[in-house]
Design brief:
alpha/beta, Rossmann fold, globular
Length: 162
């Protein structure tokens, strides 16, 4: 007798469109993962940080590239969500500075671009970004992108545990 598995495979969406919860790290594991949100617009930064917290991750924020570079050194995040268009130091300048850091661990922290551009592939390629999200950011897309980038970077969701 052939039995068909009615459940979606790990990471796929079930028929309701919801992500398969079996593929997601637990809230406890995600709380050990730190994400840096870099966005100059205060309201957008607040909303993005809230979404990341809602997904169970720790969050640190910066309003421009200068603050983001400081946060990299002080907090050593696992992932950066980076707006491109910012005053003082924009996303392009931040990314060049990050990649030039002598600390290779900091230079290699994966970056997800946040952009209003509708064809961000070129920017992502030029900046060697791990992924991109188009604003306004959808919570399910944010969740899936964070999980995918962390998994591909080799960062286990609970790597900060001792």
């Amino acid at each position: 007798m052939i039995q068909m598995d009615a459940e979606p495979a790990r990471g796929e969406r079930d028929p309701s469109g919801e992500p398969d919860r079996r593929a997601m790290p637990t809230r406890r594991d995600r709380a050990r993962t730190l994400i840096l949100v870099v966005e100059d617009h205060e309201d957008t930064r607040y909303i993005l940080a809230g979404m990341v917290r809602m997904l169970g991750y720790e969050v640190v924020t910066a309003e421009d590239g200068h603050e983001a570079l400081t946060a990299l050194g002080e907090r050593r995040p696992d992932l950066v969500l980076l707006d491109l268009m910012m005053p003082r130091m924009d996303g392009w300048q931040f990314r060049r500075a990050q990649r030039a850091l002598s600390d290779q661990e900091l230079a290699a922290i994966p970056v997800v671009l946040l952009t209003a551009v509708h064809q961000p592939e070129r920017e992502a390629r030029q900046l060697n970004a791990a992924a991109w999200l188009i604003k306004p950011v959808d919570l399910n897309e944010l969740s899936a992108t964070i999980q995918r980038v962390l998994a591909s970077s080799g960062t286990p969701p609970d790597h900060r545990s001792s």
